[in-house]
Amino acid sequence: MVEDLETSLFLEYARRKIAFEYDNEEMGELAVKILKTLSERNEAIPDETLALILGISATEIRRILHVMHRAGLVGLVRESTDQYRYEYKWFINKDFIRKFLIQHINNVVTKLMHRMNTLSRTTLYICPTCFRGYTLDEVYEYDFKCPRDDTELVQVDVPSEITFLANVIKNLRGEEKEQ
Questions:
Q1: What are the structural domains, with CATH classification, of the chain?
Q2: Concatenated DSSP letters for 141-176?
Q3: What family, per the record (predicted)?
Q4: pLDDT, position 4
Q5: Whole-model pTM?
Q6: What is the mean pLDDT of each run of 10 residues along the chain (179 residues)?
Q7: Which of 118, 157, 160, 122 has its CA nearest to residue 139?
Q8: 42, 53, 52: which is closest to 94 by C-alpha?
Q9: Is 43 helix (H, G, I), strand (E, B) or coil?
Q10: Which helix (H) or strand (E) holds 10?
């Protein structure tokens, strides 16, 4: 499978998300294998079929699929097989990946805009060692020293920080429009 930028970003996000969720890099790699299989097939596939294709237990595949579904990484359709049974099929496609990335970009832009608003309203200080931020009230309380590592706190250069964040937001919105 030849990966374009969208797909590789999506797969890397999924790998990290699942590896973090399970605290296990192998689970992240398995999630990528599942996503690649779904992408290559470009159709909705039952979890038992995925298990056969990948040679992994259906229970393990199902656990990862459910976590990925909660994270919005895969879609799920329920099809009736007969009067009393349903079959659940999992899917992913280019439009799905594109929508996911646009949503993710929008979430990041929202957080960056919130950070810009905070910077413009509050005097912030940062620890140059652990990079944790503190408000002016907290800085006075901690006597201008980081409570974690006793490093001297430094005031954030607000104009350059806001300019930097504005450029990042502009670039992200440009990427979003290209999608």
A1: 5-92 (1.10.10.10), 102-178 (no CATH)
A2: HTTTB-TTT-PBPEE--HHHHHHHHHHHHHHHHHHH
A3: Belongs to the TFE family.
A4: 76
A5: 0.65
A6: 73 91 92 92 90 92 91 87 83 82 89 90 91 91 93 92 91 70
A7: 122
A8: 42
A9: coil
A10: helix 5-22
What is the structure's pLDDT at 1? 47
Nearest 5°: the CA angle 77, 80, 84 is: 135
- For the record, the structure tokens of 128 come out as 């140059």
Q: Which residues contact 25 (CB under 8 A, 6 or more apart)?
A: 19
Q: Residue type for 96, please?
A: F
Of 44, 48, 40, 13, give the one whose Cα is nearest residue 28.
13
C-alpha distances out from residue 135 to 63, 154, 164, Å? 42, 11, 20
**Cβ burial 1-35 (10 Å sphere, 16+ → b, else e):** eeeeebbebbbeebbebbbebbeeeebbebbbbbb
CA distance 95 to 88: 20
Using a 10 angstrom Cβ sphere, with 0-12 exposed, 13-18 middle and 19 or more buried, the burial of residue 91 is: middle
CB atoms within 10 A of CB 110: 11
